[in-house]
Structures are given as C-alpha cells and as structure tokens.
Amino acid sequence: MTRAPLFLLLATLLAATGPAPVIGTAQVVDGDTLRIGDTKVRLFGIDAPETNQQCTREGASWGCGEASARQLRSLVEGQQVACLVRGLDNYGRSVAVCSARGTELNRTMVAAG
C-alpha cells in the first residue's frame, strides 16, 4: 500500500471515532447543561429555560427554570452519566446526547416538557 492511501485510511478512521465520550458524576448547571469534572456539557436538541427564568401559565407566574433544573437533577443525582459529544456550541461547551441509568436524558427532558 502506498503512503497516500494509507494516510487517507488512517485519517478516515480517526475522523470516524469522533470526540471521546464524557463520563462521570454530573452536577446540574441548569435544565439543559451539566458539568462533568471540568467539562460543561449542553444537552443536544433542547433549550431549557434559565434557572432564574419565570414563565406564565394561565396568568400565574411560576419558576419554570428551576423546575427544569430540578427535573434534570432528579435524573442524574448520584448516577454515572455518559455523554456522546456531537460538537461544540458558540460558548465552547460540548453539545452531547447523555444518558444515566440507561435513560437518555435529552429525550426524557423533552418528554417532560
């Protein structure tokens, strides 16, 4: 095999592996962001309210941001979390699909509303 095809094969294999997964105990930053070790991870495909955000339902204000963070906390509390990184956002955070206890957090958070 010549060097050019070998280089292309190696480059393709390295690109296919993608970024390393982020695994560890997670701390909830807000309803769509976790911190695992030194890495901030944003859940791919969702945009939850900020923790201090208030929402209105039937004319009444409620802490939707805190509710979202509380829901995510209930899913990850004391659990090992594994995140498959899909890229970086504009703030340099890893954007990932994460799971804990065999449950995909992204899908579960969307389903919870």
Task: Describe the fold and architecture.
By secondary structure, the chain is α+β, with helices and mostly antiparallel strands. It has a single domain (about 20-110), classed as OB fold (Dihydrolipoamide Acetyltransferase, E2P) (Beta Barrel), CATH 2.40.50.90. Helices cover about 30% and strands about 35% of the residues. It is built from three helices and eight strands; from the N terminus they run αβββββαβββα. The protein has helices at about 5-15, 65-75, 105-110, and strands at about 20-30, 35, 40-45, 55, 60, 80-90, 95-100, 105. A five-stranded mixed β-barrel has the order 1-2-3-7-6. The chain has a two-stranded antiparallel ribbon with strand order 4-5. The N and C termini lie far apart (about 55 Å). Mean pLDDT is about 85; it is low at about 1-15.
Please tell me what the overall shape is: globular
- Rg from C-alpha positions? 18 Å
The CATH topology is OB fold (Dihydrolipoamide Acetyltransferase, E2P)
Total domains: 1
Strand arrangement across the biggest beta sheet: 1-2-3-7-6
The CATH architecture name reads Beta Barrel
- Assign the structural class, choosing from mainly alpha, mainly beta, alpha/beta, alpha+beta, or little secondary structure: alpha+beta
Please report the total strand number as a whole number: 8
> Number of helical runs?
3
Mean pLDDT: 87
Termini separation: 54 Å
Low-confidence stretches: 1-15
CATH class descriptor: Mainly Beta
Strand content: 35-45%
In helices, the fraction of residues equals: 25-40%
The helix/strand series, from N terminus to C terminus, equals HEEEEEHEEEH
Main pleated sheet:
5 strands, mixed, barrel
